[in-house]
Each structure stands twice: as structure tokens, then as C-alpha cells.
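User: quick one, fold this
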Amino acid sequence: MEKIRIAIIEDSEEASDLLMNYLMRYEKEKDCDFDVRRFCDATTFLGSYNHYFDLLFMDIELPDGNGMEVVAKLREKDKEVMVIFVTNMSQYAIKGYEVNAFDFVVKPIVYSIFSVKLTSAIENMRQKRGKNIWISNKDGKIRIHTSRLKYIEVVQHVLTFHTLDGDFKQSGSLKMFEEELADEPFSLCNRCYLVNLKFVSAVKQFDVYLGNERLQISRLKRNAFMKALNDYLA
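Assistant:
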């Protein structure tokens, strides 16, 4: 069973507890596996964010920021994480689509409505989640999910898989994994790096940034890489 990582960003303890109870109920009814973490303010949540979560329940009115503004900042780091806004005022809900929110729920939250929206989010998430790849080395075999893989680097026939969970090595060619990941949002920025476009935070001249990491784009690959990135963003 695949674990779904969920964050609740809500300053009201009562509202946070209700969401937590609803998630636990849904987990039992639908035989899901959730890892739920709670935050009571925007500063702590943004400061510790590391692409861990699949789904956020984001309160719009937080003590240190508007939920819309928080998600706008978050989109600079993560364009993919799903967001369901929690609000007292339905008139704000439509603005959520400006920051690519998936949906919204209006307080007081009713479980039947919550369940329908969560089911829709999970189904959508599973369609976009990517796939597993296996790498082999002297220690055995390791399964890596493409949603956690930032880029693959090759140096003298040694592949390094740079993931959110650390780096893993295997002998081989980049071409082999370029073919295996042809249906995923990966693109070569030069002959040494196969980049997961979901982690690209900026491109400046012949440099591509994945958060604090900077990789060089070759002149030969730049046009194809930029086309792939633009197609992905579109």
C-alpha cells in the first residue's frame, strides 16, 4: 500500500483536530495509508518544506499570512503538490485556482463532502505520481520513485541518482534510463545530466537550478531542454 503524505496547515486546534479525525476515519474506511503532519503557522511550514508532501489542507486565514500568499510562495519551490484550501468564506475559493489549488472545503466541514473531495484528490494524485525504477549495485537492488528523483548524473559510466532521500549509484549508461523515463517529465540538459523538470526552479542563460543546485546546460541541448520545460509548464 502506497503511503500518502499529508500536511494540515491550520492555526485553529479545533479545526485541525477535526481534519485529523476525518483523515483517520477515511483511512479506515478506504484502507489507505496516511502520514499526516500538522502545522499551526505559515512560517514553520514554509521554513521546513522539502517536497515531502503529496497533499496540503491549507487554511486561508493564518496568524502570520494569508493561505493564498503562502501557496504562491510555495509554488516557487513545488509546482506539483496538491492543495485543498479550507476557508470560512466561499468567495475566496475561486481565487485558489490562481495558485493552482485542486479544490476547497468550506467550514464547518461536513465529512460526506470532505470524503468526496479527498477521493477525487487521491485519484488525481495517483494518475500523476509517476512510476518506480530499480537500480542495482554491489549492495543489492534499490527502488526509486520518479516523484523523488531530482536528476541522474553520469561520470565515467557511473550513474548517480540524486533523490530527495539521498544519492544512489549504479554502473551503466544514461541512455538506458533516458529511454525508461521517456514517458516522464525528464530531459537532458547536457550529456551528463537527465533532469526531472518538476524540480526546476529557474533557468538563467546556460544554467538550470534545482533549488540550491546548479547544473550546466550545453549549447547543443539548450533548445530541446527549453522546449521540454516549456511543454511541461504548459
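User: anything notable?
Assistant: The chain has a mean pLDDT of 90.
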